[in-house]
Amino acid sequence: MDRVQGSAPVRVRLPGPLVDLFPGSVRRLEVEARTVREMIEALNDRWPGMRDRLCDTTPAIRKHINVFVDGERARLETKLEPGTEVFILTAISGG
Q: What's the pTM value of the predicted model, to 2 decimals?
């Protein structure tokens, strides 16, 4: 498990299309993070390049990616409490 000093585990669920891009990645995991930004860094430490799929260069969460923390839409600065459940979803569009 990734360790961030002063943090506690949060549960993360990744979308299938993202997992498919990173061999060895999983749909559900725990990482230690205090913010969404730290969580994304922990994911990138495990699977280099994942941050670039989730964030743009501003940095901000990409427009076609949605991050939900305990059911609420989140930003990089969103704080994570121990045991928080984080869902990362890809946007679905159609017509």
A: 0.88
Q: How far apart are CA 52 and CA 81, in angstroms?
A: 24
Cβ contact 8:82 at 8 Å: yes
Please give the tally of structural domains in the chain: 1
Segments in the chain below pLDDT 50 = 1-3
Q: What is the pLDDT of residues 71-94, one digit of tens each?
A: 999 999 999 999 999 999 998 766
CB 39 within 8 A of CB 46: no
Domain with residue 80: its CATH number is 3.10.20.30
Q: How distant, in Å, are the alpha carbons of 2, 4, 27, 62, 80 from that of 65?
A: 23, 24, 16, 5, 18
Q: What's the CA dihedral at 76, 82, 85, 90 to 10 degrees?
A: 20
